[in-house]
Amino acid sequence: MMNKEIIRSERFGEQYSLIHHPSGLDVLVWKMDNYSTTEAMFATKYGSINTCFKTAKTGDFIEVPEGIAHYLEHKLFENEDTDVFDLYAATGASGNAFTTFHETAYTFSTARNWDKALEILLDFVQKPYFTQENVDKEQGIIAQEIKMGEDSPYRSCYFNLLKALYKEHPVKIDIAGTVESIAKITPELLYDCYYTFYNLHNMVLSIAGNVDEDKVIEICDKLLKPAEDLKLECRFPEEGHGVAQKRITGKFPVGLPLFDIGFKSKPCGGIELEKRACIAKTILQLVAGTSSPLYQQMFEDGLINSQFGYSTFNAVDSYFACIISGESKDPDEVYRRIIAELDRVQREGFDKENFEILKKSRYGSMVRTLGSVEGIADSMTESYFNGTTVFDEAEVLAEMTIEDCMAAVSELFNEENSAISIIEPAKE
Amino acid sequence: MAVNYNKTEIGKGITLTRITDPKYKANIIRVRFITPIVPDDLGVNVLLTSLLVTSNSQYKSRSELSKKFLGLYGTSIGAVSANVSDYQSVGMTISAIRDRFTIGGEVISDEAVKQLIKCIFEPDLTDGKFNENYFRLRKQELLDNIAAAVNDKRGYAYMKAKEVIYAGEPAAVSDMGTAERAAAITQEDLLRQYRFLLKHAAIDITVCGGGEIDSAVKLLTDAFAKVERGDVPQIDYLKASPVKEKLCVKEEPMNINQSNMFMAYKTDYPNIYANKLMDCILGGSAFSKLFMNVREKLSLCYYCDSYFSDLKNVMMIESGVDTANIEKAQQAVTAELKAMQNGDFTDEEMENAKLYICSGFMSNYDSEWDIGAWYRVQDTRGTAYTPEECCALINAVTREQIIESAKSMKPDTIFILKAEGGSDDE
């Protein structure tokens, strides 16, 4: 039995549909009038961190090699008789895929034949084909990808930070795994992971832009294979207070030293995650944004440059961290000043005027996202996996007070839960 | 699908381009100063624009100006700088949400444009000098950015490859110039170049977005009408790069894990749409011969793509490859180009490439940034085709023209950033 919800925002005058398809898949459709492009994302709540899990069929928890979610993503592009890119080629669509710590998504973007491209997407993601031969062949390509990643000082700096921040959580492991861990991957393991995580109850289809909802449902009816809910459970080790390492360094042929400074805190989900992410982003802007006194002082002292920035890093009920990044001749001094500024604002409070300005700025940023086909498809998927809607962020932002931010500083930016990763210039 | 497009000359060598479609939620204003590349001026122009976008006579620090723009619903302001063919294009861009999307219909667009105009015409100068501290810091940042080019290995390899591919041409130099020149930039250089750009650069102002732009256009037109203009060069972006008499092979060793290889081919074949289609079938898509055969079947590279520059008539093939496989990868790439020259591609491959390119063209309608970029590219070719018109030109390309294009590609340069060892973590 199909059942549909309309998710509407009076504030923005926009809406999209959430359709609970009888196959077990939830389908999100946002029609954008006068747009040429259609952007689709067929995603599973399965990323590199999901290495320990159980279902109604496995009985006890099982563990699989690191990097297997990413490996699986690569292999799904190969059908028994043809390559998926060849199929897309006949439609004009540009297909792609990515794996993160917490999800794997298969996407296409096209201004032609979106319905045919959607048929290809739904078909190939539901049709795994793994053999010893094609699994062996992929190891060469993925090993090349891992090596390419190892040549990026920015990537190394970031992944080193996660290694330093997290003592136990698998988020400390590179998404692609290692050349050694991917060597343990077999067709059987790939099938086990596929049938566990690519169950339609664990997935979502988001489609935005030039699209017809009835046609989407018709294609879903034709191609989705009803799935039994396997009652999937993933297990993550208890992370606890404190970090694995306060300071971690690496060496690369770089100009200036690079740094990432992280503060981990407890994970959460649903609307609580939306609120916490909103508060964390606002604190980051107030403390380290371009309009903050700290930014101005560090810039004037020649400690930071335009590469300085910040972000939040989180997945529902799994991990949450605030990260500040940049280039500096003295990253340790940057870290020291950030800690000192956090200490100061806890004593003296935030600037009220700056707080109101930043709220307006964030509102403007949300308006922009609603004009981007790709941005909407992304937001629908992300909010769905977080247990929220695309519009919740605006409501949370409207209700957020400066007191909410003040109350959260000590928990979100606890020095004991922080670490710094530095990439120093290697001598040639 | 269509947007309203209009380009007019509003002063000597000053063009105003208006692109609107009511579906866009924001408006972008971009002001570019275009001059022939002068190696000594590259860094000066970059430093100058970085100072202009971070302060003006009213808001004298980055933080103050930033706070002003954040209060205008996060209006962004940024410097733009790029070498396009043998020209340098520098300037600034602002992007503001439309007034109709602010809370309560607050009008922000006029103030955003006024601040942009202040940044251009009323910089924070005292006795002809920028704030000495900011000058010193931004200059150091320019030096840092030049040094940081090495951090992105693919970007660095591309920069070094260009030096060889375009040896002896203005396009050979990097966008920011050299560290030696950057270190020697003075306040006097900046003021001289500021005056020079206002007087002698070709200036393009583009207002692109959802509409309600009349007021912005008037403010900009009035501001630029007051500028005293001198001689302005005629800009002709089409500067075909001459093919070298003998294939040039260069390597640079680096302590990395994976080698980056650029193979450059040059052509005098005049049909750019045939060249683009040939490039797409060969290496410009995920179903191309290079991707399917060199990467997927032979597992020789993690990436192996091609790109065609219609302004320089150069096709570049870029790959990430294990050092031990460099020769094999070169042979595999050469074999795929040979296949194109022999007509070894199906009608289906050709039709698929046409569909793929045209789908990409049409997608430009969906973002004010993309449609703005679309018409900037048109401008470099001296055309103003819509995406539909370019699709028609692509669809008219024949198999014979693709083969002729492939046959016209002459090997010119191979540049390899060669991996020697890897990184160390502690």
UniProtKB/TrEMBL annotation, chain A:
Keywords: Hydrolase. It holds the Pfam family Peptidase_M16. Its EC number is 3.4.24.-. One of its GO terms (molecular function) is metal ion binding. Residues 59-178 form the Peptidase M16 N-terminal domain. It is an enzyme of class 3 (hydrolase). InterPro entries: Metalloenz_LuxS/M16 (IPR011249), MPP/UQCRC_Complex (IPR050361), Pept_M16_N (IPR011765), Peptidase_M16_C (IPR007863). Residues 184-360 form the Peptidase M16 C-terminal domain. It comes from the Bacteria. PANTHER family: METALLOPROTEASE, ZINC-DEPENDENT PROTEASE. This is Peptidase M16 inactive domain protein. It comes from Ruminococcus albus 8.
TrEMBL record, chain B:
InterPro entries: Metalloenz_LuxS/M16 (IPR011249), MPP/UQCRC_Complex (IPR050361), Peptidase_M16_C (IPR007863). One of its GO terms (molecular function) is metal ion binding. It comes from the Bacteria. Pfam families: Peptidase_M16_C. Residues 185-354 form the Peptidase M16 C-terminal domain. Its EC number is 3.4.24.-. Keywords: Hydrolase. PANTHER family: INACTIVE METALLOPROTEASE YMFF-RELATED, METALLOPROTEASE. This is Peptidase M16 inactive domain protein. The lineage of its organism: Bacteria, Bacillati, Bacillota, Clostridia, Eubacteriales.
